[in-house]
Structure formats: C-alpha cells, structure tokens
Amino acid sequence: MGQEERTVRFDHDLQIEAYRFEGIMQKFPNHFHEYYVIGFIEKGQRRLSCKNKEYVIGTSDIIFFNPLDNHACESIDNETLDYRCLNIKPEIMRKVTKEIIGQDYLPTFASPVANRSEKAQLLHNLHQMIMDEISDFKKEETFYFLIQQLIEEYTEAVKDTEPRAIKQEIENVCHYLEVHYAERIALDDLAKIAKIRRVK
Q1: 85 vs 146: CA distance, rounded Å
Q2: What is each CA distance from 181 to 166, 175, 178, in whole angstroms?
C-alpha cells in the first residue's frame, strides 16, 4: 500500500488555502469547518454523510461544504482517495461574491455533491496554479470565473426581501428626514421621495 501524502498551500494573492490528499485511507468522523470547502475527487470512491444525508462520491464529483455543514466520510472497499480542495473563509467569499454578483451576501450551496461536474476541470486548473505557486492575473481571473460559475449553477437563489431600488428609496427618505428634521414634514412629500402613490 502506498504512503499517504498531504500537501497544503496558502495563496497570499487570493487569500485561500489549497489542500491535496493522495492515497488517503483515513476515515473522517463527523465534523464541520468555519469556512467553505470546495473540492473534487481525482480518484477513488467514498461514502459521504452531510447534514444527515448519505451520498456516494467518486471521480470528477465536486464537493461543497458551507460553513458549519457537518459531514463525515469513509472509504468504500478499502479504496484509496485522491482529493483536492479549496478552503475559503466567509469574509473572502463575501468579498468575491459582492464583486461578481453585486450583492453583499454569503452564498449557500444547495447540495454537497455535484456528480461528474464539468466544472471539476476548471477547479483542477485553479488548484494546480496554487500548488505551483503561480502569481499572475490568469490565476485571479480563473478564481473569479470559477466562483461565478459555481454560484450560478449550484447555490440557492438569493432571498432579497428588499430589492436594491427599494433600499435606495428608503435611503433617500432617511436622508431627507436628517436634513429637514427641524421643519414640518408632510407625508405627501415623503411619499413622493419614496415613489409611493398614496391612496386617499
């Protein structure tokens, strides 16, 4: 049996960690992380449990763990595992998401497994750039493109109870009240600023 290998790189440009596991037999008991984990299986199969649901994962499957998602995994038929993953802190994910989507929120991946995802190759390419300690614009471009693709395809829809237009109108009303607080303010004036049609 070959020796297990574990390689870790921290990318200072992107502020994320890249892990590579090769020939892994270890069983991972139920645990969670305070950061996002986005990984993929290079070789092997595993039985995965995440949030009390069972999955069988294999080559080219992408794995998503949101912060605090409890999960565990174990070998199937004593088969070794080759696995790569990126660890992304919530503050980094929020920053990147805001730049990509234009909204300040933390995305939630709907399922922990995307079977035989075509995005696995893109994830592999980025991971290898980090492992090779490449520092250029191509790496950052690949990272942002990957996160955009994953958010669009695998995350839950954003529940924006206050669309941006409404938020702006509320801000306009608040600003008007701050400036004119000492004056007599008519409700009709506030309705006009907020673009609300009053029913009399």
Answers
A1: 13
A2: 22, 10, 5
